[in-house]
Every structure is written in structure tokens, then in C-alpha cells.
Specification:
single chain, 6-stranded parallel beta sheet, 4-stranded parallel beta sheet, 12 helices, 12 strands
Amino acid sequence: MSRTSPGNAPKIVDVARVAGVSVPTVSRVLNGSTPVSDRLKERVSAAIKELGYRPNSAARALALGSRSMIAILAGNSSRYGWARTIQGIEVTARQRGFSSIVSVVESAEESDVSVAVDLVLAENVAGVIVLEFDEPGRALLRALKTAIPIVGVSGGNHSEGPVPHATLEEFAAGKQVTEYLLSLGHETVHHVSQPTMGRPLGRTDGWQSALEEAGAPVPAIVHCDWEPRTAYRAGQGLATAKDVSAVFCSNDDIAMAVMRAFADNQITVPGDVSVMGFDDQPLAEFWAPSLSTVRQDFDDLGSRAFRLLEALMQGEPAPGNSVAVPKLILRESTNPHYKDRTTL
């Protein structure tokens, strides 16, 4: 027989039932506002541990008249997309009278995730936004089984479930990039991918779909990690292949490293090979040659995430996902393909 309310995370009433005490007694133990005997504290603490109950910080904040803080949980805060999304959340939240706290967990390990979640939920936050860009982000979202309002942020692929998401439609953008490169006369498009979460990125799925629909060969994906030197090594490998005339990189950092590897091997961009990035970070425009890419509006992504959370915090029905399509930005690193590259 279930020890919790049907279909929900453990609630204070479940703790009271398991501990054999009243709901007000549980509240007194949690708030520490009124003295409670050690015996009752032990019973309540044991029930909380057994059920995995986390206090509803939103309700507690409301009771204290302090629904003015939200939490942002992320696996990283320094990379371009993460940092700009967090900025977008914070700016919009501030405009709406909310402050923000940011908690970063660098690992998807249960212990690291639990510490980050506990630290945030110990605060009087009215809601939480989770950046689900990587595996730590996914683990954080899975760990937040609580009644507090939660919104996820992703680049397209995201966890299934009731949590609303603000997303960027990467699949459509990846497909558009590939179709554009094919339209320049390239027989196929090679792809260098950043780390995934055990499944292809939306932009990668779009790349493959466009090639298959065009009847073009689908080359093996070249994988690298977040260390730029691995992208440079990927570029070195592509430089030795005579059938490479177009490369779609899954972010701008990778594209820049690949272009440097080509330059070190006397391969010109876009004369010999066209290269496209993804994100449109500020340096992309000033790279040599300037980088054709996909502009992802991360500031707007963060802003849309907060607006979803605000609706939940105001008690409105759960909103649907908020989706925006990134924009293709054409610069100097892509060019029509007139002939096969036959020399290295």
C-alpha cells in the first residue's frame, strides 16, 4: 500500500500520517516556531526521511509573505548558452520584482544533485528553473519531485513529464543549415557534435533528416567534448579526408577550432570547405572568415522560461511549452561548391 498521496510527491499530510502526529505538529517541527518534544521531532524526522519529503518552499514563502525569490539550477554557468540563458532569466525576474539565486552542480552523481537541491529548497524560493542542457541538468529535474513550481529549459530534446519547458527548436534549425549547405552544391555535409545526453541533439537529428530526405550520403558523426582541443583534433581528422567539402559544427567553439585545424593543413574556408557553426556567440562575427551560424536567442529563452514559471507561481493552469525557432545567419565561411577538393 502506498505511503504517499496517489500520483503526487510526498506531502505534509503524508508525513503526519506516517509519524502518527497532526499536520500542525509537523509544521511546528519544520518551522521551529514553537517548541516540540524531542520524541515528536524524532518521529517526524524519521517519517520525512522514509518518504523523501521536501518542504514546499513556495507555500512556506507565501505564508511568510516573501514570494520574491526564485532559484536557477544548472550544470554549468560559464558556457555561452548557459550564461546568457541565466542572464535572460535574471533580467526578466528582476523586472517582475523577483530576485534569483543560482546553484551549479557539475556532476549528475546523486550525492552532488541532492546537495544542490537541498540547498535551494532550504531557501524561501517561490519557484525553480532548471537548465536541462546536459546530464546534470536532467538529473536535477528528476530530483525535484516536489510541489514547488518548476520549469525546464532545453535546446529541443527534453525529459518527458508534466514540467513545462522553454525550448529552442533545434531540429528545424539543424535541418535548415543542412539544406542550405546542400543547396550550395555540396554532395553531403559532415557533422561534428558536442557532447550529448545519450541521445542525438535536436540539431543533429535535423542534420540527418535533411540528408536522408535529399538522398545524400549520411557520414559518421564526429564527436568531441567540451574541451576545444578535441574539436581541433576532429578538424585535423576531417582535413585528411578528400570527400569533405561542407562541415556543420554543433556550436561555434567547435567550428572555430575546426577552421583553425583546416588552416593549419592549408585548407581554405570557404574556398575548399564551407563551415557552419551554431549559437552565434559574439566572436563568430569577428572570426576570420566570419562564421556562418545559427542565432539562438538565449536571452529570450531565459525570459520565456521565467514567464512560464510566473504563470505557475500565480496558480494558473500548467502552461504548454514555449518554443522558438533559431535564425540562420550567413557570413563568409560558406560558399557555393564548384568542384571536388582533390588535393590536401
